[in-house]
Amino acid sequence: MNILIIGTGYVGLATGIALALKSNKVYFFDKDKEKIKHLSSGQLFFYEPDLQSALEKAISNNRVYFFDMLDKVNEKVDAVFLCIGTPVLKNGKTDLKNIKQAVCDIKKYFGQDIVIAVKSTINPDVFEFIKREFNSNNFHIAVNPEFLREGNALKDTLNPSRIVIGTEDNYAKSMLNNIYRDFDAPKIFTDPISAILIKYASNTFLATKISFINEIANLSDNVGGDIDDIALGIGLDPRIGKDFLKAGIGFGGSCLPKDAKNVIHFSRSKNINLGIIKEAVLINDTQFLVVIEKLKENLGNLKGKVVAVLGLSFKGGTDDLRDSISIKLINELLREGIIVRAQDYLSYEKAKEILKGVFISNDVYMTAKGADAIVIATDWKEYPKADWKKIRNLMKGNLIIDGRNILDKENLKNLGFTYKGIGRK
Ligand SMILES: NC(=O)c1ccc[n+]([C@@H]2O[C@H](COP(=O)([O-])OP(=O)(O)OC[C@H]3O[C@@H](n4cnc5c(N)ncnc54)[C@H](O)[C@@H]3O)[C@@H](O)[C@H]2O)c1
To answer: Does the Cβ of 315 fall within 6 Å of ligand 1?
Structure first.
């Protein structure tokens, strides 16, 4: 089939490349000309495992084509996957700018029996807007939410946990069923609004699970429990499950915070109060401040102290800095008069554009040099394997705040560190 992907970010590229690997011809369009230039020459502009080699393979097999203008796509397209960013404004409302532009472009250049599969995360009001705009029999609309995890985007897209197809249009249903025929995953056929709510409920459930364990970790810190044992004890209950029970300094990224804020805003406009989700966001908004408290408890006056923050990306395995807790934390440390040194394996160059006046490197040892304290802000798998004896010798102080609870606390104590986790004994 001929597929058009609009938006070549994490979702668009992973979706398009996966569909190209399943023998479809895939046309990519993005309004960002620089991205299209990079992609046309076979270069990914962000880090994502396996995607670079899959992109090269798809290009050499003549399965993918890249466009910065939609009118250059001269083939008959069977389905359009809308994968554009759907940012929210400060108040939580969706910024409709991208959507309006994409809808306008599709209507202008395509018309006959075309399926529009909305992969971008949108709320029911935005869906109603899209439906109204495509008010013609030529367009067959479906909501097809995406659940991939950054750092695992291509694998998740090729092996999804489920495929949700929300449509009241039989043509869209049968086309999407056909497009996904070689994907080994349960398919849920439902109406568009239920498909939308599956996506919001999934992300806000994950957000709530993280804020829940963080709240218990803060309690544990106060009364002397150990959150690792507590999480194990909770997670072994099959009704709860062990994933997303890792306490820390909170969730970030381009999806969880945005989607939670958007569904709260949307529901408020319908006079529905999403109390649990609101609380999960509120807990997350201040969770990173536990680091400041722990620094004060151990170092006293923070002005002029040197703190090395390890990890800038919103999670390990990605170079994505969007809504990263680490950046929020560093800005707060700077406000306290702390001299911040920071490190990340992948996002260090991008971070230099955001964080001015901060020493930033990709080297843990260089960053730790002369520090009074180290804060682990991102769950990079590399940190537990670092040479902590060497780090201890390079530091001025001996305090380590493990904001992701990933280090071996006994080993660190034996090396002379004062170790503080989040809710860890
Ligand atoms: N990143 C994730 O892990 C993830 C997971 C599931 C769902 N989602 C959702 O999928 C959507 C896309 O997310 P992403 O992370 O891939 O975003 P992204 O920011 O990485 O990429 C979006 C792309 O869309 C392009 N774009 C925006 N408006 C356009 C327009 N009118 N025409 C053409 N191109 C346009 C941008 O230039 C950008 O390249 C969002 O709604 C997001 O919430 C993201």
So the answer is: no
Q: Which residues contact 268 (CB under 8 A, 6 or more apart)?
A: none
**Extended strands (E) in 97-155:** 114-118, 139-143
Q: pLDDT truncated to tens, each residue of the chain (425 aa)?
A: 999 999 999 999 999 999 999 989 999 999 999 999 999 999 999 999 999 999 999 999 999 999 999 999 988 999 999 999 999 999 999 999 999 999 999 999 987 889 999 999 999 999 999 999 998 888 999 999 999 999 999 999 999 999 999 999 999 999 999 999 999 999 999 999 999 999 999 999 999 999 999 999 999 999 999 999 999 999 999 999 999 999 999 999 999 999 999 999 999 999 999 999 999 999 999 999 999 999 999 999 999 999 999 999 999 999 999 999 999 999 999 999 999 999 999 999 999 999 988 999 999 999 999 999 999 999 999 999 999 999 999 999 999 999 999 999 999 999 999 999 999 99
Cβ distance 184 to 161 under 8 Å? Answer: no
Closest-CA residue, ligand 1 atom 13, reads: 85
Beta bridge partners of 29: 6, 67
DSSP annotation of 224: T
Nearest CA to ligand 1 atom 36: 7
Is the CB of residue 367 below 6 angstroms from any atom belonging to ligand 1?
A: no
Q: Are residues 62 and 185 in the same domain?
A: yes
CA–centroid distance, residue 48 to ligand 1 (Å): 15
425 in any annotated domain: no
363 Cα to the center of ligand 1, angstroms? 31
For ligand 1, atom 11, name the residue with the nearest CA: 120
Same domain, 273 and 314: no
Centre of ligand 1 to C-alpha 181, Å, is 25
The rounded Cα 153 to chain-centroid distance in angstroms is: 10
Catalytic residue among 103, 255, 260, 368: 255
353 with 394, same domain: the answer is: yes
- The pTM of this model reads 0.96
